[in-house]
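Q: Could you fold this chain for me?
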Amino acid sequence: MRAPAVSQHHHPLTGGATFAPSSKTSIRGRSNLAIRMGLKEDAPSLAIVGVTGAVGQEFLSVLSDRAFPYQSIRMLASKRSAGKHLTFEDKDYIIEELNQDSFNGIDIVLFSAGGSISKEFGPIAIDHGSVVVDNSSAFRMDENVPLVIPEVNPDAMAHIKLRSGKGALIANPNCSTIICLMAATPLHRHAKVMRMVVSTYQAASGAGAAAMEELDLQTREVLQGKQPTCKIFKQQYAFNIFSHNAPVLSNGYNEEEMKLVKETRKIWNDMNIKVTATCIRVPVMRAHAESINLQFEKPLDESTARDILKRAAGVVVIDDRASNHFPTPLEVSNKDDVAVGRIRQDLSQDGNHGLDIFVCGDQIRKGAALNAIQIAEILL
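A: Sure. Below is the predicted structure, expressed as structure tokens.
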């Protein structure tokens, strides 16, 4: 695992890496400096808000992996991180404290520092003429803000142009919504989804680097017979599952579940889509899984569905019934593609009008940083 915070050590059960913060971060690309030569004059200037967080660090990894052209990057974070050094693509940067003057001369700002920061500083960046790609939930349901998954609805941001003289804001959907709709949308285009039932199995990464560290710590504590440390969540996470920690609303759904409902309707531009969700935290370090049941207006058999998904951009099919091999969070960790398997006819629905699928996607990657940078690529 490359992105969140820095010094890596291996998880006692999975062998996966977890992270301890340090004052020096190093993110190195795949010798992309040569690719960038000659691009600097026309390339955009970037700023990353929340660069020291899990998604902020992943922004850097994705920028490097995709050789995103830039002439400069401003690394922004809280006062606590200001003054620390960060090495990216063999260049040393000093992390700056976010303030009202942080966006002077910046073309694209990538925000991942929480909704309150986005609400305070997003409008300031827009006033400076920047295009903001916001990873928080602050503006997702604003009818004037496009909510974009590039493989699904890129046209929603067609009116936004870089260096047009006026700033703009584009919202990144919730991670669970992105992972779900990457698989459901190609099928929706073919047969029209009437109703969707989603059950999620969400990793620690969705709650940030601190939650990943706590899962690692709790696992070691429980194995040693100690009382687990519960600072991020109110209950034991290791060797346990529980309802997603988002606040529960008066209708009994939590905020994470309602994001899936509302964001799907907005992205598909259809307020009549029936969506219900149950979101669960599972003791997995990174990458979310989702069980999705679909009811279609038109018949769709599983063979056709499998062919549609094999051709879908950003999707890989892992559906080997003979060997019982289907998507797992470990297989998609640090991967760009969303994996789909368990593709089968829903026996409770008549006439091939229903399907069940199982989906796994890296929450930090496609569920956050990659999607945001794909949005930025459309702007180029």
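A (continued): The first helix runs from residue 33 to 36.
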